[in-house]
Design brief:
about 240 residues; three-stranded antiparallel sheet; elongated
């Protein structure tokens, strides 16, 4: 009975990992059309099964993920001719001010809000290199250089804050938190362009199907183990 319960725990843990894998693949697919979105992948752990010499209480080796990684590969650059659409060519992130603090994004689909602030698609202000919000005059031409310098007419209004990190952590909604001190970047700002998601829809559908099959296998094994346990109990009563 002890071995059966332990096997159930292990299979249940495997099923839970399959659900996490399903969620990750589904999230990637849902963001195929999100500008600047970066694919997420789950890294699984390889575990050593110790020599327990028949100790039935030391057999719990659970399937688990080591970490969630971000694929930072450059997405395709698409020309939009919208002066507030910005893309980064190279490594780096735009800085935005959110309710939870400063976060970073590759989604450069920006707008002017009612107050004339440059904001992202969620309404969060885009920051300049002085960590200030960028105010612009509506209906006046805007020119942004590859160095991120923002001009209206001949007046320099701001310089976009574009930073890079050794690694970043996904927060959701195409936002990332930086790990460590911001690093300088040579990324170029392209005005009138958007970076596409780097998710390959065909490959991601394959990942989704594999995760679904993995979940089904764990479910079938659990049902089979349950049937085996019932048969064992019936035999024990004879």
């Amino acid at each position: 009975m002890g071995l059966t319960l332990q096997a159930l725990y292990v299979l249940a843990a495997g099923g839970e990992r399959a659900v996490e894998q399903l969620d990750t693949a589904a999230n990637n697919i849902a963001n195929i059309n999100t500008p600047g979105f970066k694919k997420l992948i789950e890294e699984e752990m390889s575990q050593h099964i110790p020599d327990n010499k028949g100790d039935a209480n030391n057999l719990l080796i659970f399937p688990r993920f080591k970490a969630t990684h971000i694929v930072l590969e450059q997405g395709t650059l698409q020309k939009t001719d919208n002066p507030l659409d910005l893309a980064l060519k190279g490594n780096g992130f735009f800085a935005v001010k959110t309710k939870t603090g400063e976060l970073y994004t590759r989604n450069g689909h920006f707008f002017l809000n009612a107050e004339g602030k440059l904001v992202d698609s969620k309404g969060n202000p885009v920051l300049d290199i002085a960590d200030k919000e960028i105010l612009l005059i509506k209906n006046e031409p805007i020119h942004i250089t590859e160095d991120g310098v923002v001009y209206q007419g001949n007046k320099k209004v701001a310089v976009l804050k574009v930073v890079n990190f050794q690694s970043v952590k996904p927060i959701g909604d195409s936002y990332y938190a930086g790990n460590g001190t911001p690093l300088p970047t040579e990324a170029k700002v392209l005005q009138g362009f958007l970076e596409s998601s780097n998710v390959d829809p065909v490959k991601e559908m394959v990942e989704l199907i594999n995760a679904q099959r993995r979940f089904e296998i764990y479910g079938n094994l659990i049902r089979g183990l349950d049937q085996l346990n019932l048969k064992s109990n019936e035999i024990g009563k004879v």
